[in-house]
Automatic annotation (TrEMBL):
Keywords: 4Fe-4S, Iron, Iron-sulfur, Metal-binding, S-adenosyl-L-methionine. It comes from Rosistilla ulvae. Its cofactor is [4Fe-4S] cluster. Signal peptide: none annotated. It comes from the Bacteria. This is Anaerobic ribonucleotide reductase-activating protein. One of its GO terms (molecular function) is metal ion binding.
Length: 212
């Protein structure tokens, strides 16, 4: 497999971005750049590039136990060949569902990448809109749409009624949060941590040199 892929981070297990305990892969680079995105550290394209073989070697030990794969970003479809290659490999190792978050419209994705979309179980499409309410599971704003494309997706997600969850992840000396926070949740987390003497910030604040 000679496929380069720009990755922001990976983690297992992730419980906040799909059914069960999942492998999470966050792609690096996003041309969409929605106002209010809390993942601004994922926008810069072309950084953290590795070979897919290297990525899959890291993911391999998690494939036996994982309930599925969540692909997020950044914008995965800014690297469509890498999405296709990663899914092709994953399908040989795990029978769970593959869920992908994209900021592009479903119509655009079906038009430009029908063979890749057809390999997904769950597609969550449309850009984040900070002006919209947030009442739907697994969506940052209510304009975003969940598409259940396969029987396993319907079985696992049709009646999904999950309380909003965030994962607190520890990677070496870094602590970070995965999931879809409610509006103002990050401000509240920063406020509580500050009250305990800890500084924290969302990636846009850190990129702007602001600490909470
Ligand atoms: S598509 Fe996702 S990563 Fe890109 S700007 Fe929008 S919310 Fe952020």
């Amino acid at each position: 497999m000679t496929q380069s892929i720009s990755i922001n981070r990976i983690h297992y297990p992730i419980h906040s971005l799909g059914f069960g305990a999942r492998v999470g892969v966050w792609f690096q680079g996003c041309q969409i750049q929605c106002p209010g995105c809390i993942s601004r550290d994922t926008w810069e394209p072309g950084t953290n590039a590795i070979q897919l073989d290297e990525l899959t070697q890291t993911l391999l030990p998690w494939t036996a136990a994982a309930d599925g794969l969540t692909i997020s970003g950044g914008e995965p479809f800014d690297q469509p060949d890498a999405v296709a290659a990663l899914m092709k490999w994953w399908r040989t190792k795990n029978g769970g569902d593959v869920l992908l978050f994209s900021g592009y419209s479903a119509e655009l994705l079906w038009d430009r990448y029908p063979e890749i979309v057809a390999q997904l179980d769950v597609l969550i499409s449309e850009p984040y809109d900070a002006k919209q309410p947030q009442t739907q599971p697994l969506r940052g704003s209510d304009n975003q749409r969940m598409h259940l494309l396969t029987p396993i997706a319907a079985q696992r997600y049709a009646n999904l009624d999950v309380a909003p969850t965030l994962d607190l992840c520890f990677d070496d000396d870094t602590v970070w949060i995965a999931g879809i926070p409610k509006p103002n949740a990050m401000a509240e987390i920063r406020r509580r941590l500050a009250a305990m003497g800890f500084a924290a910030g969302t990636s846009d604040q850190l990129l702007d040199g602001v600490r909470g």
